[in-house]
Specification:
This protein is α+β, with helices and mostly antiparallel strands. Helices cover about 20% and strands about 30% of the residues. It binds zinc ion (5 copies). One zinc ion binds next to loops. The site of one zinc ion has 7 residues, from helix 5. InterPro entries: SINA-like_animal, Znf_RING/FYVE/PHD.
């Protein structure tokens, strides 16, 4: 059964105004205030779990919370869909755009980057030089591959002994990327490794959390949560720069990042049979 968009204001969360379709659904003593699982840690704190509503809701299909999305989503798929919905809005991840209420559907609109961050916008593939990376220490790029945007974060630790690279997508497809490393002087040798592209999540993938200057309450690895710091590098490929320079016999290394959509498992199987 489908929930229709227009009616049912009383099926919506009193805090975020989304449908009550993420568990646990909590209700006030008098039943007038309802809260969805997205808002579990937000005020007001409600103590009654509405298991009756949850058991009915679990059998329904809901419209997506994002404008322009026509998908109908079943209860268990709601959070997964909302995080990867190509219609979702994200806030500009750059520091100087914070708190300006700048948000956009990045899958169809990169005009903000064209006007405000043109130096960070690249096409097809990204080539970085190690000298440049260690000079800049920490930066972000938006890479467009066949009109699909990817966010790339690069961050040096221990003054450049280690370079971290994170690549993020914004849709429900699965991608991986290849980093090819070679000398800027000769091409006798190169190193290649393959890494996974992660679905971008504002609360986890923040360049300023990596730099330890972010204070946002909503960011999992911000300064507010010292206990979480040990986990914050897990979404990044780690490159030991000294080791890489020795293997490639060079003073400066070039990194070439190429992103590809991952063939699904079925396609891989059938091609290996042939
Ligand atoms: Zn809510
Ligand atoms: Zn959609
Ligand atoms: Zn959607
Ligand atoms: Zn911006
Ligand atoms: Zn942050």
């Amino acid at each position: 059964m489908d929930i229709e968009q227009s009616q049912n204001q009383n099926l919506k969360c009193s805090v975020c105004n989304n449908y009550l379709n993420v568990a646990p659904v909590m209700t006030s003593d008098d039943g007038t205030v309802n809260k969805c699982g997205r808002c579990l840690f937000r005020e007001p704190i409600l103590n009654n779990r509405n298991t009756l509503y949850e058991s009915i809701g679990a059998k329904l299909n809901f419209p997506c919370a994002h404008e322009d999305c026509t998908d109908r989503i079943s209860w268990p798929e709601v959070q997964k869909h909302e995080r990867s919905c190509r219609h979702r809005k994200i806030e500009c991840p750059f520091w100087n755009c914070r708190d300006k209420g700048l948000d956009f559907v990045i899958m169809n609109d990169i005009s903000h980057f064209e006007t405000c961050h043109p130096g960070s916008l690249h096409k097809d593939k990204l080539t970085l030089s190690l000298q440049n990376v260690t000079h800049l220490q920490s930066f972000m790029k938006l890479l467009m591959v066949n009109d699909t945007p990817f966010l790339i974060m690069v961050h040096c630790i221990k003054f450049g002994e280690m370079v971290l690279i994170g690549v993020y997508n914004f849709d429900s497809k699965i991608y991986d990327y290849e980093i090819k490393m070679y000398s800027d002087q000769h091409n006798r040798r190169y190193l290649v490794f393959k890494e996974r592209v992660f679905l971008y999540a504002e609360d986890q993938h923040c360049l300023y959390c990596l730099q330890n200057i972010c204070e946002l309450q909503t960011h999992r690895f911000s300064k507010k949560y010292p206990d979480m710091q040990k986990d914050k590098y897990k979404y990044y490929a780690k490159i030991d720069t000294m080791c890489t320079k020795n293997v490639l016999i060079t003073e400066n290394v070039l990194f070439e990042i190429v992103i590809r959509e991952k063939q699904d498992v079925k396609a891989e199987n059938s091609s290996s049979e042939r």
